[in-house]
Write a structure and sequence with these properties.
The complex is a heterodimer of chains A (124) and B (438).
Chain A (H helix, E strand, L loop, with lengths): L1 H24 L9 H4 L9 H5 L2 E2 L2 E6 L2 E4 L11 H5 L4 E2 L1 H6 L9 H8 L2 E4 L2
Parallel strand pairs in A: 2-4
Antiparallel strand pairs in A: 1-2, 2-3, 3-5
Chain B lengths: L9 H20 L2 H4 L3 H26 L13 H33 L1 H8 L5 H22 L4 H9 L1 H14 L3 H4 L1 H23 L1 H4 L3 E10 L4 E8 L11 E5 L10 E4 L9 E6 L16 E8 L11 E7 L4 H9 L9 E8 L8 H10 L3 E7 H4 L4 H8 L6 E5 L2 H13 L7 E3 L6
Parallel strand pairs in B: 7-8, 7-10, 8-9, 10-11
Antiparallel strand pairs in B: 1-2, 1-6, 2-5, 3-4, 3-6
Helix pairs in contact in B: 1-3, 3-4, 3-8, 3-10, 4-5, 6-7, 6-8, 8-10
Classes of the chains: A alpha+beta (124), B alpha/beta (438).
Chain lengths: 124, 438
């Protein structure tokens, strides 16, 4: 058991060290955006009803500060768990985004940068 | 006759069931397609499942550490229950260690920085509880495995694992997950966490008030040779009843030595009014036992253990004692003086390094005169080499239908157990006193 513990802890810290090293040497958070999301629907009128049509985990749009975002690919990577985000699919998530329910503080600037990558357009 | 083995596996089966139940619930909470649709969700699902299973096992580990005597039968004795506790604890730790790493991998697919940020503390306190719990667990287990600090300090630090559990439980319940979404899974985990915390409070926090202990008075402290001491205690009030071969936990507050609690085999027979333990001075604490003041109070908890000839499958026994591992056998042999039931045929191998160390040989020979089916076989390893099962077979004949009892230094016990396997002796017939507290 002692050896299993030791090997596991060494491997754990190697993995953490690897992630930290590559994370912080990459300088900035580069979010890979799937092609489907990069296709902006500019020119089309996006309404709350349009957003409401994208209300499932596999097709999840949210409204934040009167802008629509397709956050489908980000659900598994959401730090508070995918379910926290899924609850707002097809809905206005402005209040939740600005208060970050688990801490009553707004989301970080990094979070805002990430969100911007998923912009679909303004909600009329 | 045998309770050690009849119910002995039930505890392990129960643990497996208790661990599988939340996993099964988890599988049915969402359609499987949504769990394993792509690599993102697959890794997230595996990470979540590792956390759920890890916390279930952590809760069970804490329940086992509460030293609840009614659970002993279901594990075949406290020694085996503590072994299961050690294994379930390490497995829980491995699962919980892997949990954040697997969850971090999906972030790597978007950016390595996001994965790094995920592993670091943030304003998300439910996540921070999990990080603190895991680091606390890792530190305390490392100290337990590697430090050579005093036993009592190690024991105290090991007990702090309960705090790590509490933080881990908060993390599980507060972070958005399947536990928070499903009322059934939430109540299952809440119940398990509740039992674990009650067990922890009962044993560790309020043990002084809640755990039943007997008061004895130290009536004699005898040096039997240069290193072995016998402590004789007489009951101050209620007397503790016990079976041959069992052990107790004892502390000697205000006796001139440390008030630490330690486990020792009982060396007196159940029918004796006095309670005796026989100890070899091998560690910091046991070396001080000869200094106990006569007349001091002894606080005794027990009895524990199922290592007893009363828990056997047959009436033909092989008893193998190595060095100070003689103590539970002293209790058993002494109990034969008053035994009137079906006689046991016992070959008792008393193994020490030299003949001079066989300080109980004369007494054992005296007992065997009054109990003819008890055959004492002295075995000094400096003359005959180490005692092996081949030697035992040569001396005692076919062993496949005899109960084998062994207590001694771990390498000797290991050698005997391996020897039994090679001779085809059924596992259930091999009884080891394998107590290890930390």
């Amino acid at each position: 058991m002692k050896y299993a513990f030791t090997i596991a802890v060494i491997l754990f810290w190697c993995a953490v060290g690897f992630i930290m090293f590559f994370g912080y040497t990459s300088q900035k958070s580069v979010v890979l955006i799937p092609a489907a999301v990069q296709t902006n629907t500019a020119g089309e009128t996006i309404t709350t009803a349009t957003v409401a049509m994208h209300s499932i985990e596999k097709d999840c749009w949210v409204i934040v500060n009167d802008k629509a975002y397709n956050v489908t690919p980000f659900i598994p990577a959401h730090p508070g768990g995918g379910s926290a985000l899924i609850a707002y699919c097809g809905k206005d998530a402005t209040v939740a985004f600005n208060t970050n329910s688990s801490s009553t503080r707004t989301h970080s600037s990094t979070a805002r940068t990430i969100l911007a990558n998923y912009l679909v357009g303004d909600v009329k | 006759m045998n309770t050690r083995s009849k119910k002995g596996q039930f505890g392990v089966v129960l643990i497996i069931l208790l661990t599988i139940i939340p996993t099964v619930m988890w599988f049915f909470l969402q359609p499987l397609g949504s769990r394993y649709g792509d690599s993102f969700t697959l890794l997230t699902s595996i990470g979540q499942l590792l956390g759920l299973t890890g916390m279930t096992l952590f809760a069970i580990t804490l329940i086992l550490s509460a030293r609840l005597s009614f659970l002993e039968d279901y594990f075949g004795g406290l020694d085996r229950m503590y072994n299961v506790h050690h294994y379930s604890g390490v497995i829980a730790f491995l699962f919980l260690l892997t949990h954040p790493l697997i969850l971090a991998v999906p972030y790597m697919q978007s950016s390595a920085l996001r994965a790094a940020e995920f592993l670091l503390p943030s304003a998300n306190w439910p996540k921070n509880f999990g990080i603190i719990a895991l680091l606390t667990m890792m530190t305390l287990l490392a100290i337990t495995f590697y430090s050579r600090w005093r036993y009592q300090l190690l024991r105290f630090l090991h007990q702090i694992l309960g705090v790590a559990f509490f933080l881990g439980a908060l993390h599980s319940l507060l972070i958005p997950s399947d536990i928070s979404k499903s009322i059934i899974l939430k109540w299952y985990m809440l119940s398990l966490f509740g039992f674990a915390l009650v067990g922890y409070l009962y044993r560790t926090i309020f043990g002084k008030y809640l755990v039943k202990r007997y008061n004895y008075i130290v009536s004699d402290v005898r040096r039997l040779d240069a290193t072995v001491t016998e402590i004789v205690m007489t009951p101050e009030g209620e007397r503790m009843n016990y079976a041959p071969g069992q052990f107790l936990f004892v502390s000697f507050p205000k006796s001139g030595i440390s008030r630490e609690i330690h486990p020792f085999s009982i060396s007196s027979a159940p029918q004796e009014e006095e309670l005796k333990i026989t100890v070899k001075g091998l560690g910091d604490y046991t070396k001080t036992l000869p200094d106990i003041r006569i007349g001091s109070i002894a606080r005794v908890e027990g009895p524990f253990g199922r290592f007893s000839y009363t828990n056997s499958y047959t009436n033909s026994h092989i008893w193998i004692a190595g060095g100070i591992g003689i103590t539970p056998f002293l209790n058993m042999a002494r109990s034969l003086r008053g035994y009137t039931g079906t006689p046991y045929a016992i070959d008792f191998y008393y193994s020490t390094k030299t003949h001079a160390e066989m300080i109980f040989l004369n007494e054992l020979l005296d007992i065997s005169h009054g109990y003819p089916s008890l055959r004492i076989i002295p075995f000094a390893s400096d003359e005959k080499g180490y005692l092996t099962m081949d030697v035992v077979k040569k001396e005692s004949g076919d062993l496949t239908s005899k109960d084998i009892y062994v207590c001694g230094p771990p390498p000797m016990m290991h050698g005997i157990v391996v020897g039994c396997e090679k001779l085809g002796i059924p596992k259930k017939l091999v009884h080891c006193e394998e107590f290890k507290l930390l």
